[in-house]
């Protein structure tokens, strides 16, 4: 037998409304379990065995969902915010148990994984796991000649925080800016910006290209999201 959950949680997780809305729906006889209308929403259901329906339409309980979002600048990596639009607003799903895995700053763009798989999130975020994250950055001005070497050795940020060795690749220049790719293996607060600051440089644009085996889909427009493919899900789980 699978794990039983309350009927109202089942339906709220699947985006069918708040618990009080679901209670109202049940009172009106709109919800059934195994074909029998139910009036109470604190009943337990087994998502693997019980057939739950709303208005006669079956509702499947999909346990885990995984989305790739191409985060634009100007939205915050949070599930709720009073001031700004959040990454969850862009996902346009009513499902309530999803959350972003790690965070990108409001002005950072690029790959963000959104899921409700807490175990996978933990695996990807745990400092002990050293998951590679690759960023593209535009940096104002020229970098010191020994920038790559200092980053490769593991540098100390201005406030004394040590960071793990990182790989810096210079892609070229554009006017006064240097274009780089930086691979880091941890996720300290504002880490990329602070690493360049420690070299006396300022990041003017930042975009995450990949996280472990998961790469930002070049076909995914900025601001759009899509479910991960089965291969992508397997790849992130297996790393
Ligand atoms: N490093 C930063 O400085 N900002 C981000 O958003 C991600 C990594």
Commentary on this structure:
There is one protein chain. The protein has about 240 residues and is an alpha+beta fold. The protein has 3 domains: about 5-60, Structural Genomics Hypothetical 15.5 Kd Protein In mrcA-pckA Intergenic Region, Chain A; about 65-125 and about 215-239, Pseudouridine synthase I, catalytic domain, N-terminal subdomain (Alpha-Beta Plaits), CATH 3.30.70.580; about 130-210, Alpha-L RNA-binding motif (Alpha-Beta Plaits). Helices cover about 20% and strands about 30% of the residues. The protein is built from 7 helices and 15 strands. Strands 7, 8, 9, 10, 11, 12, 13, 14 and 15 form a 9-stranded mixed sheet that branches. Strands 3-2-5-6 form a 4-stranded antiparallel sheet, with no helix packed on it. The structure holds uracil. The site of uracil has 8 residues, from helix 6.
Can you tag this structure with a few keywords?
15 strands; 7 helices; elongated; 4-stranded antiparallel β-sheet; Structural Genomics Hypothetical 15.5 Kd Protein In mrcA-pckA Intergenic Region, Chain A; binds uracil; 9-stranded mixed β-sheet; Alpha-Beta Plaits; single chain; alpha+beta
């Amino acid at each position: 037998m699978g794990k039983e959950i309350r009927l109202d949680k089942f339906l709220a997780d699947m985006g069918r409304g708040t618990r009080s809305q679901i209670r109202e729906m049940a009172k009106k006889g709109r919800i059934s379990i195994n074909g029998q209308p139910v009036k109470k929403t604190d009943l337990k259901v087994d998502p693997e065995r019980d057939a739950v329906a709303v208005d006669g339409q079956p509702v499947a309980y999909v346990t885990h969902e995984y989305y790739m979002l191409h985060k634009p600048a100007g939205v915050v990596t949070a599930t709720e915010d009073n001031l700004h639009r959040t990454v969850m607003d862009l996902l346009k799903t009513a499902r309530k148990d999803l959350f972003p895995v790690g965070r990108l700053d409001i002005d950072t763009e690029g790959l963000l994984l959104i899921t409700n798989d807490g175990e996978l999130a933990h695996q990807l975020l745990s400092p002990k796991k050293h998951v590679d994250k690759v960023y593209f950055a535009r940096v104002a001005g020229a970098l010191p000649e020994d920038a790559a070497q200092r980053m490769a050795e593991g540098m100390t940020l201005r406030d004394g925080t040590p960071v793990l060795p990182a790989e810096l690749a210079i892609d070229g220049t554009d006017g006064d800016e240097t274009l780089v790719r930086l691979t880091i293996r941890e996720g300290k607060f504002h880490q990329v910006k602070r690493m360049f600051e420690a070299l006396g440089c300022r990041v003017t644009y930042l975009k995450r290209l990949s996280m472990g085996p998961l790469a930002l889909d070049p076909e995914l427009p900025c601001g759009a999201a899509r479910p991960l493919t089965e291969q992508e899900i397997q790849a992130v789980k297996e790393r």
